[in-house]
């Protein structure tokens, strides 16, 4: 498969009146079409900064991003649903702003809502939905813009553990069913292993990529994040990533 995204020698410095801080140092990676890449690193290491640079929300100090002409969709840490708009109105908001809400996109939104069990809640307000349903609605809002690459910024971190397991299964299935490429960031080792095709382990600031690992799990049946946790290789990857993160912590 060809690369759908190339991140080339990215550096990012932030400046204040008192100091210059280097956040990212020579970040390099590529993502292939249909791949789920997870950026795993400690809190505050700059994972979200990488996503913001890929999305074009921040300029790198040095380096370049090549999206090969592909469209980016961004799902933030919180669902960012407006409480005064119905679920349908929340989902169509981006298309309305871009003046792209036509009959074709309306049919596509209806398809997504029906397939992912939100059609009957389309006229409800966010406060009337569970946390998991709101996350699904937020992803459908992103998918409605028809992106090629999805960026997910710790999108499950605000959920309780049981809901989080269910939602990661839901989101994973949607990403795979819709044939999307995705980059997720997390500090949760188990979540990284269960979701990823590839894991890039990040260091503390200034952040570098310590290592990149292809995830190969032996599973009965189709992979889901929930059953990935039962794979015999799961503990091996967990121990490996834990040691890498701990060794980096000791070097600080």
UniProtKB/TrEMBL annotation:
Record-linked SUPFAM superfamilies: P-loop containing nucleoside triphosphate hydrolases
The name this protein goes by in its record: Spermidine/putrescine ABC transporter ATP-binding protein
One GO molecular-function entry: ATP binding
Keywords: ATP-binding, Nucleotide-binding, Transport
Ranges for domain ABC transporter: 5-229
InterPro entries: AAA+_ATPase, ABC_transporter-like_ATP-bd, ABC_transporter-like_CS, ABC_transporter_ATP-bind, P-loop_NTPase
Pfam family, one: ABC_tran
């Amino acid at each position: 498969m060809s690369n759908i995204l190339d991140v080339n020698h990215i550096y990012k410095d932030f400046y204040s009146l008192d100091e210059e801080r280097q956040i990212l140092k020579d970040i390099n990676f590529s993502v292939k079409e249909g791949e789920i890449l997870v950026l795993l690193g400690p809190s505050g290491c700059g994972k979200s900064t990488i996503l913001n640079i890929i999305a074009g929300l921040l300029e790198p100090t040095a380096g370049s991003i090549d999206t090969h002409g592909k469209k980016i969709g961004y799902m933030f840490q919180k669902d960012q649903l407006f409480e005064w708009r119905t679920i349908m109105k929340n989902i169509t908001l981006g298309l309305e702003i871009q003046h792209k809400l036509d009959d074709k996109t309306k049919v596509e939104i209806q398809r997504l809502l029906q397939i992912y069990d939100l059609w009957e809640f389309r006229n409800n307000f966010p406060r009337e939905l569970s946390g998991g349903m709101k996350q699904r609605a937020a992803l459908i809002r992103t998918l409605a813009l028809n992106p090629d690459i999805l960026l997910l910024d710790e999108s499950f971190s605000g959920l309780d553990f049981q809901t989080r397991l269910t939602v990661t299964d839901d989101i994973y299935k949607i990403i795979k069913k819709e044939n999307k490429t995705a980059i997720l960031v997390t500090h949760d080792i188990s979540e990284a292993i269960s979701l990823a095709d590839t894991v890039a382990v990040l260091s503390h600031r200034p952040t570098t990529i310590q290592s990149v690992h292809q995830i190969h799990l032996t599973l009965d049946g189709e992979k889901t994040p929930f059953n990935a946790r039962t794979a015999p290789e799961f503990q091996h990857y967990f121990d490996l990533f834990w040691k890498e993160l701990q060794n980096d912590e000791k070097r600080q």
